[in-house]
Amino acid sequence: MEDAKEFNVMRLLAEQGDAKAQHFLGLSYAKGQDVEQNYKEAVKWWRKAAEQGNADAQCDLGSCYEYGIGIEQNYEEAVKWYRLAAEQGNAYAQCSLGSCYANGQGVKQNYKEAVKLFRLAVQQGEANAQFNLGISYYKGQGVEQNYKEAAKLFRLASAQGYDKAQFNLGICYYNGNGVEQDYEEAAKWWTKSAEQGYADSFEALKKLIKKGLIKNPF
Questions:
Q1: pLDDT, tens digit, for every residue of 3-39?
Q2: Is residue 205 part of a domain?
């Protein structure tokens, strides 16, 4: 009952032009909280807030354009809104804009610019940015290849429960890249990732067990 009351109050504020309330309303429609899920409505309210300069709404609107949620996919528009939010210090937007540069989506591919943006988000503790910057170091994209730095960043993201980072940290331990080779440590991180449903970690664990390098952890 209280939640429904809050929603109605926020709707009233949103209709009066309050940007934070508009962003809240967009989240409610996106998640289906206190209202039927409706991504088009979410986009509508996020756009209103984004046009008023709300960084969270700009970031969410960018995500909608990037993934085609509630609106036709448009990478150029995604970049536009991510950039506006990133310039205001939004860590998720900084990371997402970095990914656009790394993948050449909506903007000319530029690994150095991607690394610059990932670093900004890493400074705010963004797990996805820690992972992406780790990948940059692992592959030597936009920065000199450095397995130790990659492993360090994968570990930071892994500590936040990021499944892809846990998988990649396991790869580092399996191959001895940036860390001392340790099959048990590889298994440990792959198990954590697999428990979250990350399929590649299941396959990696199966190979370790099949080769007799570790005992079955399950």
A1: 778 899 999 999 999 999 999 999 999 999 989 999 9
A2: yes
Q: Which residues contact 155 (CB under 8 A, 6 or more apart)?
A: 165, 169
| DSSP state for residue 73 in the 8-state scheme | -
Q: Which residue has the tokens 């000319």?
A: 108
Q: What is the domain range of residue 155? A: 150-218
Single-letter code of the amino acid located at 90 = N
Q: Which residues contact 110 (CB under 8 A, 6 or more apart)?
A: 101, 142
**pTM of structure:** 0.92
Q: Is residue 65 part of a domain?
A: no
- How many domains does one find in the chain? 1
In a domain, 96, yes or no: no
Question: How many angstroms separate the CA atoms of 152 and 17, rounded?
Answer: 45
- Domain membership flag for residue 36: no
